[in-house]
Design a protein that fits this description.
By secondary structure, the chain is of the alpha/beta class. It has helices spanning about 45-55, 80-85, 105-110, 115-130, 130-135, 145-160, 175-190, 205-210, 230-235, 235-240, and strands spanning about 10-15, 20-30, 35-40, 60-65, 70-75, 75, 90, 165-170, 195-200, 215-220, 220-225. The strands form 2 sheets. Strands 7-8-9-3-10-11 form a 6-stranded mixed beta sheet, with helices on both faces. It has a 5-stranded antiparallel beta sheet with strand order 2-1-4-5-6, with helices on one face. Helix 3 (about 105-110) runs parallel beside helix 6.
Length: about 240
């Protein structure tokens, strides 16, 4: 493993909602250029981990560092809206596009922090190359798209913010298998272009096949971490998450 400083460091974070503690000393790291998967069952704390990293859920203990800067600790942290121009961007579970705005308007919302028209136009064309259906439907309302098309739109909107680290929460949930394959291929392509990705995904096999490394989260604790190819053949992972 490289000795270079990770792009993202999550250090012993504790978090929850009200009186319920969901995360118990969770630590992980993501290095520049990697795809790292976070897998686990429902309620394991995967989405909460991303929400803490995005500045939405406050920490009760621990720290989160991004690009060499501490962005969260107990009692304080960088506001969620300020993390986006820093390059930390999340595609949320459930997509959360703007249903009454057109596809193009949704995509342009991803560039709301930017003031470089030429760069924005270039990135828009990049999104259309990744997902040509979005160009075809650029004037269509987002809410009229299928679930898979909305997921493509949510990813495209995130790309428009020009992220350094893209966090994706359950991109395959509720989507037809053919479109899931297209979305995962786009994730692979984005990574080949140099984008660093932290992937939360119920389809553990597909996620690990995409990834360089992975973490297994169970009831708010990291119970396993290793190279993705080793996790794919680990008997504990195979029995619990791969259906073997």
């Amino acid at each position: 493993m490289s000795s270079a400083q990770p792009l993202l460091e999550v250090k012993g974070i504790v978090a929850g909602y009200g009186s319920v503690e969901v995360l118990h000393q969770v630590s992980l790291e993501v290095r520049e250029g990697e795809i790292v998967s976070l897998i686990g069952g429902n309620g394991a704390g995967k989405s909460t981990t991303l929400m803490c990293t995005s500045g939405v859920v406050p920490l009760r203990a621990g720290e989160i560092w991004f690009a060499g800067k501490r962005i969260a600790q107990a009692g304080s942290g960088v506001r969620a809206d300020l993390l986006v121009p820093m390059g930390l961007v999340q595609v949320p579970e459930g997509r959360r596009i703007f249903p009454r705005m057109t596809v193009l308007e949704n995509l342009m919302m991803g560039a709301y922090t930017r003031n470089d028209p030429a760069g924005i136009a270039k990135d828009l064309e990049h999104v259309y190359q990744l997902f040509d259906i979005l160009k075809t439907r650029s004037s269509q309302l987002g809410g009229t798209l299928s679930g898979g098309e909305q997921q493509m739109l949510a990813i495209g909107r995130a790309i428009m913010s020009r992220p350094r680290l893209l966090m994706m929460d359950e991109p395959s949930m509720g989507i037809a298998p053919l479109l899931v394959a297209r979305i995962f291929e786009a994730v692979r392509e984005l990574n080949r272009e140099g984008l660093t990705i932290l992937l939360v995904e119920q389809n553990a096999r597909a996620a690990l096949k995409l990834s360089k490394r992975g973490y297994v989260l169970e009831t708010g604790r990291v119970t396993l971490s290793d190279d993705a190819d080793k996790l794919l053949v680990d008997p504990r992972v195979r029995e619990a998450y791969l259906g073997d």
